[in-house]
């Protein structure tokens, strides 16, 4: 068995023809003649000692050996393209695109963005926000900041940052605020509770952790995204369930009240980075995030008013 690779140009011509199932289209993609692609494929067949294509009407189709080489060459070229793109990102000043939920960006990240830029001047950070499901494997994304529960995927390098805690919050301006303060959390059984449609089980998770019967709670107005839910709570529309991280500044300033504290969930906030990507900038960002998240998750007792 030989370890020598065939001509890279021949493999490139074959991969194009195999993926398009057309020698003519492959020639157009590679900006060469039909004959040049055919010659490269014949050279590859001679070197391997097998036929890779066979006639099929007026066109060609892959043989079993051709199909196997198509799959292998496609994966190899995709890995080469991705690796070259990742290496290009190592250049000084290359953008580092961080994807994160819009609510996290608006309520925690942006208020601290000046500090991050001052303390990590070498990180050319670009931010991409979404309230939908985030894909940490999306092309062009350097890292993704999100809450999720283990197990972690093998193709991602994760930097755990913070355990998630959730709890009920409401504005001092809420019409029912006076009747809620100083009471045990069971008083919420009589409240129409604000919730987010993207995480309908949040109140149930909190109730179980707080020792309440989840069936006793009744949901009120629902909001499509967490950001809108938190704005509704700030506007005094009712009691909302929220991650501590996203309301910690509002609770500290008195804009929101959290008399029953927060309880832990199975989720963790982590920085997700493709495993094959260079980690230097991600490590620096993860260290900065850990340092600036350390004050969150202060002790609190669920179930009783503080």
Topology:
Blueprint: H1 8-20, H2 23-30, H3 34-48, E1 53-56, E2 59-62, H4 64-88, E3 95-101, H5 102-109, H6 113-119, E4 124-130, E5 143-148, E6 156-169, H7 177-180, E7 192-196, H8 202-209, E8 218-223, H9 226-234, E9 240-243, H10 244-253, E10 263-274, H11 280-293
Parallel strand pairs: 3-4, 3-5, 7-8
Antiparallel strand pairs: 1-2, 5-10, 6-9, 6-10
Sheet/helix structural class: alpha/beta
Strand tally is: 10
Which descriptor suits the 3D outline?
elongated
Strand adjacency order, main sheet? 4-3-5-10-6-9
Mean pLDDT across residues: 88
> What would CATH call the class of the largest domain?
Alpha Beta
Element string (H = helix, E = strand)? HHHEEHEHHEEEHEHEHEHEH
Estimate the helix proportion, in percent: 25-40%
For the sheet with most strands, the description reads:
6 strands, mixed
Named CATH topology of the largest domain: D-Maltodextrin-Binding Protein, domain 2
Task: Identify the CATH architecture of the largest domain.
Answer: 3-Layer(aba) Sandwich
Question: Which terms would index this structure?
Answer:
D-Maltodextrin-Binding Protein, domain 2, six-stranded mixed beta sheet, 2 domains, 40% helix, 11 helices, 306 residues, elongated, single chain, two-stranded antiparallel ribbon, 23% strand, Arc Repressor Mutant, subunit A
